[in-house]
Amino acid sequence: MATAAEWVEGARLRTLPASSSPVLAGSGLAWFVGSFAPGRALLCLVVALAIQIGCNYANDYSDGIRGSDDHRVGPQRLVGSGLVEPRRVKWMALAWFGLACAAGLALTLLTGQWWLLAVGAASVAAAWFYTGGKHPYGYAGWGEAMVFLFFGFIAFFGTAYVQGVWPVAEAMIEADVAVAGVPPDVLGAAVAGATAMGCLATAILVTNNLRDIAGDAQVGKRTLATRLGDRATRWFDLGLLVAAGVAVVVAAALSTWWALAGLAGLALLVKPSLKVMAQAGGRELVSVLRLTGVGEFVVAAGLTLGWIVGS
Question: What are the boundaries of each domain within the chain?
Fold first, then answer.
């Protein structure tokens, strides 16, 4: 019988910055243009966190029944370790997905944009079929691309959209509003901010898959890391961090230079990145995984603080 602490561990809290960070940054951009809506931002946060926690439990369930967690290096899993019956973990995943759907429905009713339901359904499906179903895309090397899309662009743009960023941004252009004498490119800044969030969220998954590369190869789990190999995966991870840094600079250049505060989070990632490039492996990468999540959140907080000050 699993304890409450083991259930909490199964939620993989260290990965949650991947979902909370784009919501924070998207809300920061909303503040920058003067359309911040705290209630809608909170609902976006509930959707994002609930989907990710549901995804984490769904992965625990699907990997456990497939036997993919039998040779894990990282923290134990509920199903793979035999602590909990698979069906209980499955229902836990579905419960979190249900919470995400409820919050998403509330957002849809508030905005009147019913097409948002399709985005929510796609997000839940992506979470489940990462390792679930007969042909999980995570086992085919598509996990990183989907994380970049959903935890970067969809989470960031969705948060900004439901808070009314785009109509306000268009009004700013028509009124020739300038920040420090320069008309801001809100859409460009949003693309750059979403790219930074997507790169860092992807780096979390890359670190996770790098840690599990040997075990995944044993069970035929063809993640991008197993396809690229150890050395190329480490360089890919470094490339994602560099790309995130460039994206933060671009976001600042297109909005306000105060947004360069986001680089503080990347400074936190220098040491763990050096560990990755120095061939750290196994359990050593657990701390890198945690610090990458912290770094992403600090990047999002820095962008948000910069957009608040610069507004």
Answer: 16-302
Whole-angstrom distance, CA of residue 81 vs CA of residue 1: 11
Confidence (pTM): 0.92
**Residue 7 is inside which H or E element, if any?**
helix 4-10
Cα separation, 215 vs 92, in Å, equals 26
Q: In angstroms, how far apart are the furthest CA atoms of the chain?
A: 63
Query: Per CATH, which fold does 16-302 belong to?
Result: Farnesyl Diphosphate Synthase (1.10.600)
Q: How far apart are the first and last CA of the chain?
A: 52
pLDDT tens figures, 57-98: 999 898 888 876 655 555 678 887 788 898 999 999 999 999
CA 32 to chain centre: 22
Question: Which DSSP state fits 74?
Answer: S
Q: What is the DSSP string of 169-212?
A: HHHHHHTT--BTTB---HHHHHHHHHHHHHHHHHHHHHHHHHHT
What is the gyration radius of the CA atoms in the chain, in angstroms?
19
Tell me the torsion sign for CA atoms 298, 299, 302, 304: negative
What is the identity of the amino acid at 245? Answer: G
Selection from 143, 307, 110 nearest residue 224 by Cα: 143
The token duo for 83 is 């602590």
Give CA–CA dist 269/93, Å, rounded. 31
Per-residue buried b or exposed e for 208-224, using 16+ beta carbons within 10 Å of the residue's own CB: bbbbbbebbbeeebebb
